[in-house]
Amino acid sequence: MEVARQRHTFREYLDLEAISPIKHEFFGGHVWAMAGGSPDHARFAVNISTALANQLRGRPCAVFSSDLRIRVQATGLATYPDVSVICGELECASQDPGGNTVTNPVVIIEVLSPSTEDYDRGEKLAHYKLIPSLRDIVFVAHDERRLELWRRVDADRWTLEVVRDRGAATLASIACTLDVAAVFHDPLSG
C-alpha cells in the first residue's frame, strides 16, 4: 500500500473513489492505494466466490467481489475485501449518500500477499473483528495450501482454525464449506 500524506474526510475519500481508476483504502483521514494482485491471487478469489455462490444458491445470501467497499463503523476503516458474503438486506454506511459502502458482511475473505500479509493479519484483522454482523474471517495463504479461519464465538471472542492440504474450512455462519483443494485449484496447470 502506498502511504498517503494529506488528510481527507470520508466524503472527500468517496469523491476521490468515484473518479479514480484504482481502489483505495481509507482510515483516520488517510487514503492509501490498494496493492494489485497476482494471477494466483485473482484465481483464488474467483475459486472461492464460485464455491460459495454455488452453495448459497436459493438462500438469502450473496457473494461479492473486491468491488464492494466495506466500512467498519467502529473505527472508520473503509476497504475492499477480496470476497465478502452478506445475508439479508444490504446495510449501507449513513455517511455514503450513494449507498455504495456496506457495513454488514457476515463473512470476509482476504487472499494474503507478501506486501500486505502482516497488515491483513494484524491491524486489518483487529478492525474486522469490530464489525457486529461478521461471523467468519478467512485468510488464504499465498505461499502454501492453507486457510486460516477466524470464527466469532461471542461479541468479544474469536477462535482460529488452520486448515491445510486436503482439508476443508466450515463457515458455520452461512452453512458452507471451503475445500482447500478447490480454493487452490489451477485448471491451467494440467
Structure write-up:
- With 190 residues, the chain is of the alpha+beta class.
- The chain has one domain (37-189): tt1808, chain A, CATH 3.90.1570.10.
- The chain has four helices and 13 strands.
- The protein has helices at residues 10-19, 39-56, 117-128, 180-183; strands at residues 24-27, 30-33, 61-64, 69-71, 78-79, 83-87, 101-102, 107-111, 136-140, 146-152, 158-164, 168-171, 176-179.
- The mean pLDDT is 94.
Strand arrangement within the widest β-sheet reads 3-6-8-9-10-11
State the total count of DSSP E strands. 13
* SSE-based structural type: alpha+beta
Estimate the global geometry from the Cα principal axes.
globular
The CATH architecture term is: Alpha-Beta Complex
As residue ranges, the low-confidence spans are none
- Tell me the fraction of residues in β-strands, as a range: 25-35%
Helicity range of the residues? 10-25%
The number of helical segments is: 4
Protein name: Putative restriction endonuclease domain-containing protein
List keywords for this structure.
190 residues; alpha+beta; three-stranded mixed sheet; 13 strands; globular; Uma2; Restrct_endonuc-II-like
List the helices and strands and how they pair.
Elements: H1 10-19, E1 24-27, E2 30-33, H2 39-56, E3 61-64, E4 69-71, E5 78-79, E6 83-87, E7 101-102, E8 107-111, H3 117-128, E9 136-140, E10 146-152, E11 158-164, E12 168-171, E13 176-179, H4 180-183
Parallel strand pairs: 4-7, 8-9
Antiparallel strand pairs: 1-2, 3-6, 4-5, 6-8, 9-10, 10-11, 12-13
